[in-house]
Amino acid sequence: MIGAAYSIPSVLVFVTSAMLILVGAIGVISVKNPVHAALCLIMTLFGVAVAFVAQSADFLAAVQIIVYAGAIVVLFLFVIMFLGVDRREHIHFEPLVGQRAFAAVGVAITVGGLIALMARSHWVSGASSVTTKLSSGGGNVKELGTAVFTTYLFAFEATAALLIIAVVGAVLLARRESATQGEESA
Amino acid sequence: MNWLATVDPLFDHGVTFAVLVIVVIKMLVGLGLLMGSVIVMIWFERKAISDMQSRIGPQRWGPFGLLQTLADGLKLILKEDLIPSEADRTVFKLAPFLVLVPAIITFGLVPVGGEMTIAGHKVLLQVANPPMGILLLLAMSGISVYGVMLAGWSSGSKYPLLSSVRASAQMISYEAALGMTIVTVVLVTGSLSIHNIVTSQSHGIWHWNLIRLGIVPFVVFVIAITAELNRPPFDVVEAESELVGGFHTEYSSFRFAIFFLAEYMNTITMSAIIVTLFLGGPAGWAPNVAHLKWLFPIAWFLIKTVGFAFCYVWFRASLPRFRYDQLMDLGWKRLIPLSLGWMLIVAGFLVAKGWGFMMAAVVLVSYSVLTRAFSLGQSREVGADSVLPIVGGRPLPGEVLRSKTDEESD
Predict the structure, then answer these.
(1) Per residue in B55-110, pLDDT tens?
(2) Are B396 and B403 in contact (CB under 8 A)?
(3) Is B139 close to A74, i.e. CB distance below 8 A?
(4) Domain span at residue A149?
(5) B150 in contact with chain A, both atoms CB, cutoff 8 A
(6) Residue A103 is assigned to a structural domain of this protein
(7) Average pLDDT of B371-386?
(8) What is the pLDDT of residues B28-59, one digit of tens each?
(9) Which residues of A touch B91 (CB under 8 A)?
(10) In this structure, is residue A109 part of a structural domain?
(11) Which of A177, B44, B70, B385 is the most exposed place for a label (fewest CB within 10 A)?
(12) Nearest Cβ partner of A141 from B141, B175, B192?
């Protein structure tokens, strides 16, 4: 009954993107070398972009690639290269006492929550867009732009301010630390 | 399949077998064109530079040495393929393709001509015209950073790693200015599709974005894209006096050939992109000749693109290389504020004249504040009351440099 709502091409696209996402995600946590893990993360991001395109969210797909794959993971790699953390690390060492136990509890809560959600809601609706349909003329960008600059203007501006504050704060902290170091060594 | 027709008139009557054949032919012709133009471009660069330096240049193989590139390519492929023992083998093999694939995809977005009618189907002379074309362009330039970065890292060698760190920092820095100037183009066009960007400029030279947007975005775009290409004068990535050969030092044979190919592909594609975004692409005067009308846009496009390709060769022959900190200063302190301010002014004028002038005033005020901030920062960085450690490629005083190198050699 559910299968009737899908055409073969859309199923193929979904399976491809799901495989990309899953294989990438498993790779991120199972691969030992951090650079390889970052590459797996890029694969996951591409899978998500494909899924976005399949949902005719072209703009989101493009932004996903530009922002996440094009900038954020590049910064990850940057840090890995600069700090030289691509050496093998001792996995038995725990920087925080009891972090393994806390991690196990966290995983249990997350999985439990997901299962509870799945049991209570209809996940497979068969429709590509569950809320309102995109108007045919304007397309993605117009819809998103209108939403961001009218309905959600306050949230949008608040996010912008938050990001600026975070950047300025990060620069300030980094600079102050290096200045005191300079005094100590001098 | 209705939404496909809004993207490309080829799909007006749905996807039939003929349409599929046309799409495949378009892809093959696009790839062939790109490969052919790379061969010509390498020959052209060598010939033009040797002319500027009073040399003869390649002359042995074929008329005017035209087949020299083919001979070089064949030689490279027949050479031994070396992988350094310290290299990360998988990533080392993957990296050249991460450079090549974005280069090919980007060329597929460029409209080479106007429209043609083949077997009753309207065909755009552009391999693909996705609705978010211009964003795809940005995404591809973002992805090509990985190729350079991973090539340097995976070589397991000192200088390639330094080169790739430089390259990725440079490419990310200039991407911001690049994106901002593209936003001005998108603002004035009102669409993200590259086909629409070209058609909105097709009503004569005064409608070209070069003039419509003021010259500033064009200049910023050309500088930023030259930095993205890592071409002279922004080729600190391949500064052979400092870094042996750059990120591809350890590469040999076919893998090196791929890097070389991608570099020239990018040069051609970016010349074409400049023409598309700012000079109207295939727009130009076309006489009303029956059956040959489609030829003139292609000719105009080629003339403009070759003009910019020549400019790149000219830059290479005549401009000295930037120092690394100068490069970063230019990117962050000049180009980004300039393109951001210009974007605000353009957006203001698009709403109303009054808003435009108001924006211009705001931008001028903030520029003066910014200039003051820069001069303050400069005095803190190198002046008497300096609190900051020396960052980046600033030349150190002789004795400091000597003490540092002595420490390392112990």
Answers:
(1) 888 888 878 888 888 888 888 888 888 888 877 888 888 888 888 899 888 888 88
(2) no
(3) no
(4) 140-186
(5) yes
(6) no
(7) 71
(8) 988 898 888 888 888 889 888 888 888 888 88
(9) 35-36, 39
(10) no
(11) B385
(12) B192
- Residues of chain A contacting residue B387, judged by C-beta atoms under 8 Å apart: 179, 182
Between chains, do A36 and B91 touch, taking CB under 8 Å as contact? Answer: yes
Q: Give the contacts of B394 (CB within 8 A, at least 6 positions apart).
A: B325, B382
Does a cis peptide bond (omega within 30 degrees of 0) precede residue B233? Answer: yes
> Which of B93, B137, B143, B175 best tests the A interface by mutation, with the highest count of A CBs <10 A?
B143
Q: Are the Cβ atoms of A56 and B168 closer than 8 angstroms?
A: no
The answer, for A61 touching chain B at a CB cutoff of 8 Å, is yes
Residue B7 has pLDDT above 70, yes or no: no
The predicted model gives B244-257 an average pLDDT of: 81
**pLDDT range class, residue B3, cuts 50, 70, 90:** low
B400 touches chain A (CB under 8 A): no
To test the contact with chain B by mutation, choose from A74, A82, A177 the residue with the greatest count of B C-beta atoms within 10 A, namely A74
Q: What is the ipTM of this complex?
A: 0.77
Inspect the interface and report whether the beta carbons of A141 and B164 lie closer than 8 Å.
no
- pLDDT bucket at A107, cuts 50 / 70 / 90: very high
Contact B132 A62 (CB under 8 A): yes
- Domain membership flag for residue A75: yes
Whether the CA torsion A158, A159, A160, A165 is positive or negative: it is positive
By Cβ distance, the residue of B142, B164, B388 closest to A69 is B142
Mind listing the pLDDT tens digit for each residue in B192-220? 888 888 888 888 777 788 778 888 889 99
Output the 3-class SS for chain A: CCHHHCCHHHHHHHHHHHHHHHHHHHHHHHCCCHHHHHHHHHHHHHHHHHHHHHCCCHHHHHHHHHHHHHHHHHHHHHHHHHHCCCCCCCCCCCCCCCHHHHHHHHHHHHHHHHHHHHHHCCCCCCCCCCCCCCCCCCHHHHHHHHHHHHHCHHHHHHHHHHHHHHHHHHHHHHHHHHHHHHHHHC
Whole-number pLDDT of residue B384: 52
CATH number at residue A59: 1.20.120.1200
What pLDDT, on a 0 to 100 scale, did the predictor assign at position B12? 67
Interface of B with A in 308-337 (CB under 8 A): none
Q: How many folded domains does chain A comprise?
A: 2
Q: Inter-chain contact B131–A58, Cβ cutoff 8 Å?
A: yes
Q: What is the pLDDT at residue A184?
A: 44
The token duo for B95 is 């990296």
**A101 is a domain residue:** no
Chain B residues with CB under 8 Å of A175 CB are 388
Instruction: Assess whether A2 and A84 both reside in one domain.
Output: yes
Q: Which of A40, A50, A58 to mutate to test the interface with B (most CBs of B within 10 A)?
A: A58
